[in-house]
Specification:
Blueprint lengths: L19 E4 L4 E4 L5 E6 L10 H19 L3 E8 L4 H10 L3 H18 L7 E4 H17 L3 E4 L2 E4 L15 H10 L16 E5 L15 E3 L1 H12 L4 E7 L3 H16 L5 E7 L2 E3 L2 E2 L10 H6 L4 H9 L7 E2 L2 H18 L8 H12 L4 H17 L7 H13 L4
Parallel strand pairs: 3-4, 3-10, 4-5, 10-11, 12-14
Antiparallel strand pairs: 1-2, 6-7, 7-8, 8-9, 12-13
Helix pairs in contact: 4-6, 6-7, 9-10, 10-12, 11-12, 11-13
């Protein structure tokens, strides 16, 4: 599966700072010190509907992570999956009378268009669950053979008790996990499971649903969590720098994935930091496909909204915060974009060296994009009120905003 084209990232003078970021597993800010190549895995979409603001906010956050790393003169190895076969996708295809493959391909193509328009840097490896199945099956068989998985009525489940570190990603107690498992795709009430929290690794073929050869597992399809584990281990290995996604993935998805990988390899941890973006609401409730309260990137683009303004609307909120999308949020972003473009369109202006360092410091401090925006606002206000004599300043600001914030002025 191919990703989307990369926009050029301008080179800036000097060097960025190492990233301090909130790790869900420890509940603290940690300073990441990758080697020459920083490794990041971000969980991708289940493509049964278009990209909404919640998606965009999440992927924008991890785009900032990449930009901070690139500014430190590191390379970035970024991997993202597409869950192109799963219950929600099959249910939507049935509801709409569409072929599930056609639905998945169409929505994935639209996602690529949205990511390109927002100038989010693409992953080096963009892998669908279906194409990963040949690598998933041996992992499930290995977990079964080592006693970390078991069969129940043809399905194969992972035993969470096989990982001594289970629970350390989310920090939740068993009761909270059980509630979230039921809400987020698990089946804690199924009779016969060794532990209600045990997640499915391989679902035996169901009538009328797609299935694949699972070797000794029989025909079926993979569970949600093992999909990402297989892709991450294949392309990044254990102990990569950041596992990312929305805050609703901390449990069960990232918790279960970490345990799968740790049981498989005997190594710890799966990822050095688990980083989660907040939720975006509309009309008082979290944007979700099930509720239908969505604002789509593609719809805004069709309505003529500049993608740079959409991106500024996202950047105006700290990535870990839960916030609500309103018309006022977009209006403010459009006005800010206009002020910034007017400021950099002049032939000279106030010195921009300090501004570049302010942006760098803000982003290195747990991706504090709102503070970075405020710094650019102050420079633009000085430009409008006083002007300046530095002929290179507008160009420096334009390149810095592009390189570090992903906004083309």
């Amino acid at each position: 599966m191919h990703a989307w084209p990369a926009s050029e990232v301008p080179a800036l003078p000097g060097k960025g700072r190492d990233l301090r970021i909130h790790d869900t597993a420890t509940g603290e800010l940690v300073t990441l010190d990758p080697g020459p190549v920083a490794r990041i895995y971000v969980c991708g979409i289940t493509p049964y509907d278009a990209t909404h603001m919640g998606h965009a906010a999440t992927y924008n956050a991890f785009d900032l992570v990449q930009r901070v790393w690139l500014d430190t003169k590191r390379q970035v190895h970024y991997v993202q999956n597409v869950t192109d076969v799963d219950d929600p996708l099959l249910e939507r295809a049935t509801r709409d009378g569409k072929d599930w493959v056609e639905l998945a391909e169409g929505e994935t193509a639209l996602f690529r268009e949205d990511m390109t328009a927002l100038r989010l840097l693409p992953p080096q490896h963009y892998i669908g669950a279906v194409e990963a199945i040949p690598g998933i099956v041996p992992l499930v068989e290995r977990l079964r053979d080592m006693g970390a998985a078991y069969e129940l009525e043809g399905d194969t489940y992972f035993s969470v008790e096989s990982d001594a570190h289970f629970g350390e990603v989310s920090g939740l107690d068993a009761a909270a996990m059980k509630l979230l498992s039921a809400e987020r795709g698990g089946d804690p009430e199924r009779p016969g499971k060794k532990n209600p929290l045990d997640p499915m690794l391989w679902m035996a073929a169901r009538e009328g649903e797609p299935s694949w050869d699972g070797g000794s597992l029989g025909r079926g399809r993979p569970g949600w969590h093992i999909e990402c584990v297989a892709i991450a281990l294949d392309h990044l290995g254990m102990g990569f720098d950041v596992q990312g996604g929305g805050s609703d993935l901390a449990f069960p998805h990232h918790e279960m994935g970490a345990s799968h990988a740790q049981a498989l390899t005997g190594e710890y941890p799966f990822a050095k930091a688990y980083v989660h973006a907040g939720m975006v609401a509309l009309d008082g409730a979290k944007m979700s496909k099930s509720k239908g309260n969505l604002v789509f990137v593609s719809k805004l683009r069709r309505d003529g909204v500049d993608p740079a303004a959409i991106r500024l609307a996202l950047l105006a909120h700290h990535y870990r915060a839960d916030w609500e999308w309103t018309d006022a949020v977009l209006t403010e972003a459009i006005e800010r974009l206009g002020r910034w473009r007017a400021a950099v369109s002049r032939p000279d202006g106030p010195s921009a060296e300090a501004l570049v360092e302010e942006i760098r410091e803000a982003l290195a401090n747990d991706l504090d994009a709102p503070s970075a925006l405020a710094a650019v606002d102050r420079w633009a206000a000085r430009q409008a009120a006083e002007g300046g004599t530095d002929e290179g300043a507008p160009g420096v600001v334009s390149r810095a905003v592009d390189a570090l914030l992903g906004v083309a002025l």
